[in-house]
Amino acid sequence: MELKFLEYFTLLIGLYMAWNIGANDVANAVSTSVGSKALTLKKAVVLAGIFEFLGAYFLGGNVSKTIQSGIINPEVFSGDMIIFILGMISALFATSVWLNLASYFKLPVSTTHAIIGAVIGFGAIIGGVHSVDWLLVLSIALSWIVTPLISGFIAFFVFTLLQKKILYAFSPIDATKKFIPVVVFFIFSFFAMSIIYGKLTTLKLNLSLQLSLFI
């Protein structure tokens, strides 16, 4: 009875978390498309809902596994798994509340930062600091620093290329018709390979690099 109640309670908190992710994280993702008038808000929300679900279902397993058992060692709680379950529920609820507050104050924040911090917090308090994989935490924190730098460089390169090939062209419209399909092809090719190559854990597929490139 106790476990069944925890299942329903976790589902409720999960729905609350998903709602807050939609209010904050998804808003970050679609804001440029809506702001530039490339998509209406309604279309952006529908597309975000579809692809957020597909991404979570097909590609979310690896990240979920890291948060579930990578950051803190579940074996520390093997004597009383209820404590571990309650700790994870607490981390989920704390993250949801923070996202809710951030959205209210119009602050674009990271769900990843929040949930990892919450998991570290409960793990260090209940299981002790030795229960936390600090090397993994350090690598995750470093990725938070490196990622904006890499994305900024890529954005600078892409915009410079578009500026040269389209904006400064004699006929920008004709240049767009010729150049954009090439850009879209490379984007979708890279996107598809990054998904296929060793990432489809939900479908139990682990394809080699050669086969991924061929596909």
Task: Give the key terms.
215 residues; mainly alpha; 79% helix; elongated
What does this structure look like?
This protein has 215 residues and is mainly alpha-helical. The chain has a domain at 1-132. The chain has 9 helices and no strands. The protein has helices at 2-23, 25-35, 41-59, 61-70, 81-104, 111-126, 134-167, 172-199, 209-214. α1 (2-23) packs parallel to α5 (81-104), α2 crosses α3 and α5 runs antiparallel to α6 (111-126). The longest helix is centred in the C-terminal third of the chain and has 34 residues, at 134-167. The chain starts with a helix and ends with a helix.
Q: Which class best fits the helix and strand makeup?
A: mainly alpha
Question: Could you tell me the radius of gyration in angstroms?
Answer: 21 Å
**What does the overall shape look like?**
elongated
Tally of strands: 0
The profile of the biggest β sheet is: none
Unreliable runs? none
Q: Separation of termini?
A: 48 Å
The number of helical elements comes to: 9
DSSP strand (E) fraction? under 5%
Q: What percentage of residues falls in helices of 4 or more residues?
A: over 70%
Question: What value does the average pLDDT take?
Answer: 85
The ordered string of helix (H) and strand (E) elements is HHHHHHHHH
